[in-house]
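One such given next:

>
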Amino acid sequence: MKIDGSCHCGSIRYEAEVDPARVYICHCTDCQSITGSAFRWAVSVAEDDFTILSGKPKTYLKTSDGGATSHQLFCPDCASPLYAYSETEGPRFFNLRVGTARQRADLTPKSQYWCRSSQNWIDILGATKGHDTQ
C-alpha cells in the first residue's frame, strides 16, 4: 500500500510502500515516554520502500538497557516523531509512526508488543464517553 505523510508542521514529507499487515502497537515504557501516550502506533517498512521528499529529520540516539542503540528520528521544528531504526545485520527496517501518515485511518494495528507494560485501563477505551470535538 502506498502512503504519504508529514510531520505536524509539514517541514518533513515522506512517502512509503507499506504492508498493512505489519501495523502494530508498542506498549513498552520507552514508547510511552517518547510519545507522551500509552503506546506507539507504527508500521515496519523496508528502508528501500521509504523516501523523504522534503526536510531533514534530527536523530536522538536511545540506548536500551540491553545496550542496543535505537535511532529515533523526528522533525527539528515541531518535534513530531517520524520513524526509528536499530543497527542490525541485513536490510534495515524503519518503524514508521503511523500517526504521521495521511492514510492512518486505513492502517489498523494487527499486533501488539510489550503488553506486560501496557496501561491497565487500555481495555476500557470502548466503554468511555466519546466526544466529537473538544
